[in-house]
Amino acid sequence: MNDMSQAAPTADGRKIGGVLMEMKNITLRFGGVKAITDISFDIREGEIRAIIGPNGAGKSSMLNVISGFYTPQEGEVWFRGQRRQPMKPYEVARQGIARTFQNIALFDGMTVLDNIMTGRLTMMKSGLLAQALWWGRAEAEEVAHRAQVEKIIDFLEIQAIRKTPVGRLPYGLKKRVELARALAAEPKLLLLDEPMAGMNVEEKEDMSRFILDVNDEFGTTIALIEHDMGVVMDLSDRVVVMDYGKKIGDGTPAEVRANQDVIDAYLGVAHD
Amino acid sequence: MVLPDTLLFAMEAALNGLLSGVMYALVALGFVLIFKASGIFNYAQGVMALFAALTLVGIQQGQVPFADLIHALTGVEMHGFGWTLPAVVAIVLTGIVMIGMAMVIETLILKHLVNQPPIILFMATIGLAYFLEGLGDTMWGSDIKAMDVGLPQGITGWIDESTNSLFGYGFYVDQLNIVAMVVAAILVTALTLFSQYSKQGRALRAVADDHQAALSVGISLRFIWVLVWSIAGFVALVAGIMWGAKSGVQFSLSLIALKALPVLMLGGFTSIPGAIVGGLIIGVGEQLFEFFVGPLVGGATENWFAYVLALLFLVFRPQGLFGEKIIERV
Ligand SMILES: Nc1ncnc2c1ncn2[C@@H]1O[C@H](COP(=O)(O)OP(=O)(O)O)[C@@H](O)[C@H]1O
Ligand SMILES: [Mg+2]
Fold first, then answer.
1. Minimal Cα–Cα distance from A144 to chain B, Å?
2. Index of the ligand 1 atom closest to the CA of residue A53
3. Where are the extended beta strands (E) located within A45-199?
4. What is the pLDDT of residues A166-218, one digit of tens each?
5. Rounded Cα–Cα distance for residues A75 and B196 (Å)
């Protein structure tokens, strides 16, 4: 296992660019419940941005707003310098934003390979008629996409389970296949909702390594939600801290760790 | 070869049962497609077959749609365009109508019912069934029509001859049933190839498996619904052609859906091979049961045999022969 501390974001010379995504004054309500209250933050090109906070803080809701699964009542979403109109999840996906889910959403009936191939569906060009008439061309396209998918499979070290139906895999591997499917879309922005939840220490270390490698080798911008403070500190460039739907901290891991509000939230100081 | 008469008759009955089973399977297939992709039990599948058959006959024979309505409203008498189209052209045009229908269904019904429980969608398809029934009537009239797309009918010569020379008794098999078998085989092969190897087929399987995940990889559910209902409409057209050729295009055509129900209970609601095998079992079972048991109970067992068999399955194997085992999560 590689030593996490070596991946300290400041020391490795990765380029962090301009603002890729900006959330401005987002408020999201479910009936009377405010899941997100007036939160603003940005995600820069090439960085690993963590969203942390206690259970029910609104972290998943925020990711769902970014990926179009939830539409906020107030606020603006800006992506690549343009204000984004309310969008369906599939439209967001086609803009180059891929995601994984806290509770894993895979196609259980399909093999690992087929699952990952679905990540490239929107990149496939041949229409229905073309596929019927020019079978050869469609096949050549399929082969090209297949080659990309095989690279990702190698990258995430899941060669051995390529043909296994996903429903039969253990939890940790499912999480990895879900990451593979998201990567297959070659996203500009990758959203990971608790990629390490429910994993043992070794699996967590593997997953951390993959996340760092993805960011490093493909330059993919990543926003991730994580519970484990230690993991977050090792992985991320900047951290947003949420509590009860509000933003209580934002900055580098070191800054956030020193923030009194954050310490209170994490130590469970009474909220009243 | 000399076989006892009873055995020969039973073989003939079984063979015919097998082939009419294919006809049941054709109808069941339409249900499976929609149920698998969206969990909707489409009550209107039978009426869709009727509507497709009516439209096909109407287009082929140059009938003016809504002729009676136009007459009643404007006094203009306009009953025929005066053409007879080649069957292929009429089938293609009807196919386009069925795709249009899928789009309208998506826009007017499905779009507004996303995330509603299955029972709501089921009710909506009941409404759809009655609407389509009325629409078909108003558009094309309610008289019984003959379906003439050039399918061969009558005794199949080679089967008659070969069985005659083999057993000294020629089996009677309707050519239409043979055609149905070939058509069904082509249809299932095409559907399988589509679902396994095309981009849209993969998207379809993805949606059938997990909506949320499908959305996250950029699949538009609305597009998939139109696609699924178009395919189901096309399958309904095929079933409508075969059943229309067999027994005329009339209201009772929509009742073939009732025969699809026991097929689905046997084969499972989510399995295409299940629909085929279920159809075959019911077709053969029905004929053999009538042959052996019918005379003892006064005949006409084919009216209820399929349902009793389905009932037994409901009790002992509710997921059907091929359906996914239903395991309640706790
Ligand atoms: N679809 C939903 N409908 C109603 N309430 C929701 C929904 N999603 C989230 N919430 C509520 O929003 C709040 C934040 O939830 P969530 O974003 O899942 O928190 P976290 O991911 O930080 O644990 C919770 O009170 C939760 O009950
Ligand atoms: Mg969450």
1. 14
2. 22
3. 48-52, 74-79, 82-84, 97-99, 189-193
4. 999 999 999 999 999 999 999 999 999 999 988 888 999 999 999 999 999 99
5. 42
Q: Is the CB of A182 under 6 A from ligand 1?
A: no
A171, A186, A201 - which closes a domain: A186
* Domain containing residue A170: 108-186
- Overall number of domains in chain A: 2
CA distance B198 to chain A (A): 7
With CB atoms and an 8 Å threshold, state whether A110 touches B209: yes
Q: What does A127-145 look like in DSSP terms, one character per residue?
A: -HHHHHH-HHHHHHHHHHH
Whether A220 maps to a domain, the answer reads yes
Burial pattern A157-171, b for ≥16 Cβ within 10 A else e, equals ebeebeeeebeebee
User: Where does B50-136 show beta strands of DSSP type E?
Assistant: none
* Domain regions of chain B by residue span: 5-256
pTM beyond 0.80: the answer is: yes
CATH code (residue A238): 3.40.50.300
Distance CA B263, CA B284 (A): 12
| Other residues' Cβ atoms within 10 Å of the Cβ of residue B252 | 12
Residues of B in contact with A107 (CB under 8 A): 205-206, 209-210, 213-214
Name the closest residue on chain B to residue A100, using Cα atoms: B216
Confidence of residue B88 (pLDDT cuts 50, 70, 90): very high
Q: Is residue A28 part of a domain?
A: yes
Residues of chain A in contact with residue B325, where contact means CB-CB under 8 angstroms, are none
Which residues contact residue A195 at a Cβ distance below 8 angstroms, ignoring those fewer than 6 apart? A100, A175, A179, A207, A211, A224, A226
The last residue of one of the domains, among A151, A171, A186, is A186
Per DSSP, the three-state class of A25 is strand
Write out pLDDT tens, residues A216-263. Answer: 999 999 999 997 778 888 899 999 999 999 999 999 999 998 888 888
Mutate to test the pocket of ligand 1, among A37, A61, A69, A232 (most ligand atoms within 8 A of CB): A61
Does a structural domain hold residue A102?
no
The verdict on A85 and A14 lying in the same domain is yes
